Fold this sequence. Notes:
The chain is α+β, with helices and mostly antiparallel strands. Helix content is 39%, strand content 20%.
Amino acid sequence: MASERTLSIIKPDATRRNLTGAVNALLEDAGLRIIAQKRIRLSRERAEDFYQVHKERPFYNDLVTFMTSGPVVVQVLEGEDAVLLNRKVMGATDPALANAGTIRKIFGESIEANSVHGSDSPDNAKTEIAFFFSEGEITG
Ligand code: CMP
């Protein structure tokens, strides 16, 4: 499998608890390389746009409110099979169902405040990376 890139977001529940470094350590320990990273505050418009695919879901409004409730850290991760590997390191969406040792199991508070987001496919990874980063901001 060739080297791949994926988008990761450290969510407001994690930045609020000063967990950016702890999350990054788990990502790096798993072999993922953080090749771009910035701490930003999402506007409501940007969060709505990012989560467009979930627009019809009952949790959409609460999700957007949560994602704008504090700073997030957006990152580009690179590595072999990075999309799948990151999803493995993150664990299941619901922290209660996540495997031991995963980021969401260790740090997640609820299905909404689940500490991290990761792209779910290589195609979505490309779109999501371009949503937050220009090529010039990424140093592979
Ligand atoms: P994320 O990977 O950021 O993608 C969409 C987010 O919606 C998801 O993680 C969860 O944090 C959040 N969410 C809230 N409620 C639900 C739900 N019932 N099912 C799936 N995702 C949910």
